[in-house]
Amino acid sequence: MSTSASILLTTLNARFMHTAFGLRYLYANLGDCQSAAELVEFTIQEQPLNIVEKLLSYQPRIIGFSVYIWNVSEIEAVVAILKSVAPDIQLVLGGPEVSHSPDLPAVCELADYIIAGPGEQDFRELCQQLLQGERPNGKYIEGRATPLEKLVLPYRFYNDDDIRNRLIYVEASRGCPFKCEFCLSALDKTATAFPLDDFLLEMEQLWQRGVRNFKFIDRTFNLKVSTSIAILEFFLQRMSDDLYLHFEVVPDNLPDKLKTVLQRFPPNSLQFEIGIQTFDSDIQQRISRKQNNDKSKDNIRWLREHSGAHLHTDLIFGLPGDTLENFADSFDQLIALNPHEIQVGILKRLRGAPLNRHNIPSELRFNPLPPYNLLSSREIDFVTMQRVNRFARYWDLIGNSGRFLNTLPLLLGETPFWCFMTLTDCIYQRTGQTASIALKRLFELVYVVLTDDMQQPADIVKAHLRLDYARAGLKGQPDYESLSTLNKPAKPGVANKRQQFHA
């Protein structure tokens, strides 16, 4: 039976393994109200009615929701039910999806209060007022940033179950000095670091409690190299076989003194998320992105060859002025650097992002429903966008999964993007699916496309697939022979000659 709590802090995470880091900051900074509060997390897969029942079991007076692009629809359903069955409960929304008035989602109409921007101070004060029977004058509250040195850090509010089963998010700094228009961090004035000694003390306590997987959410971990080195040295002194650190790094800032420290980390202990987004200098200038492409390439190449870090790189398709040919060029340049992963992302409309100034001149048309992905632009029609969406999905299944390491060079040829687009088109024409494809079936489809559509010798293709199949640990053997004459793609085939396989 649940205990009562006057204040509930809640959200719907994308997956169970995720934790609501922002809610823990709010809880840590509730002051005298903390004893009356509880933090309750759900996932977007759970039924709204069941979520409401669980929330109401606490008999709350105030419920605060953390709203993001990935959970706004599900939270709207929960809020609508709450307002219907328990209208006296005060519902407070915060988070990036509700912070950019007047560009607000429909759920804001149902809520009692909205806190835009930082909430640690203003949510506490709002709760104090509401519990005392007072009502603020306005529904919309502009959150005030608290100096980082005055924030109560939230790390002790990761419980033992979080440490055993979930990602542990940490941050050594907030903000970003760069102005890339597709990102909400473009609204920040600069990056500000937490006091280093206090931060490292918290990391020590997490480490003592058994945390071995630290996911840093800093936008620019390597911006101030001296701080980066101090944090890396802290973890090097505590290195173990199961320690794993994730950082988002600026691709063109890797000085020698930082390289020296990185080389001391063993393989499989570091993951770097590296946002390239595009190598097109005209697009970079158009969206206010400052990136030295040559330095970025040199650094990725160095990390791949001289460090044991896992490199997760990002590209965005559909930026203002982008074309399929432009994106293909960026993809091929990046794949030549041999990162472990390339995440092919589709441009999304973020409320409040400066990129929205391009919506009319670039004819950017976004999905009206979350996650507000681009549907078409002046240069990219809807059909092409759908093909790239499928490309991204198949690339995750085949290119990023690590299951086709031996076969992938055959699939990519001399023009990787166009070759893989051929694979994408052919698999989709045969199956009509981008999900729920069994791994054995995927091996069979790759064989069919390589031999029938790309005219690769069957014995060579089988030899490469055999190695990957063994690594995948699958039982039995793929049914290559019967498939090679079945499910020929319907005519017409792929759109034009250039987009077919380049021998």
Structure description:
The chain has three domains: 7-147, 3-Layer(aba) Sandwich (Rossmann fold); 167-380, Alpha-Beta Horseshoe (pyruvate-formate lyase- activating enzyme); 401-503. The protein is of the alpha/beta class. Helix content is 38%, strand content 15%. Helix 2 (48-56) packs across helix 3. Residues 489-503 have low confidence and may be disordered.
Uncertain parts? 489-503
The structural class is: alpha/beta
**Mean pLDDT, rounded to whole units?**
94
Helix amount = 25-40%
Q: In what order do the strands lie side by side in the largest sheet?
A: 2-1-3-4-5-6
What is the top-level CATH class of the largest domain? Alpha Beta
Rounded radius of gyration (Å) = 25 Å
Task: Label this structure with key terms.
503 residues; alpha/beta; Rossmann fold; pyruvate-formate lyase- activating enzyme; six-stranded parallel β-sheet; 16 strands; globular; disordered C terminus
Q: How would you briefly describe this protein structure?
A:
With 503 residues, this protein is α/β, with parallel strands linked by helices.
Present the secondary structure layout.
Blueprint: E1 7-13, H1 21-28, E2 37-43, H2 48-56, E3 62-66, H3 72-85, E4 90-94, H4 107-110, E5 113-116, H5 120-131, E6 140-142, H6 160-165, E7 168-170, E8 173-175, E9 191-193, H7 196-208, E10 213-216, H8 225-236, E11 244-249, H9 256-262, E12 270-277, H10 281-286, H11 293-306, E13 310-317, H12 324-335, E14 341-346, E15 365-366, E16 374-376, H13 382-400, H14 408-412, H15 416-431, H16 439-453, H17 458-472, H18 480-483
Parallel strand pairs: 1-2, 1-3, 3-4, 4-5, 5-6, 7-10, 10-11, 11-12, 12-13, 13-14
Antiparallel strand pairs: 8-9, 15-16
Helix pairs in contact: 1-5, 2-3, 8-9, 13-15, 15-16, 16-17
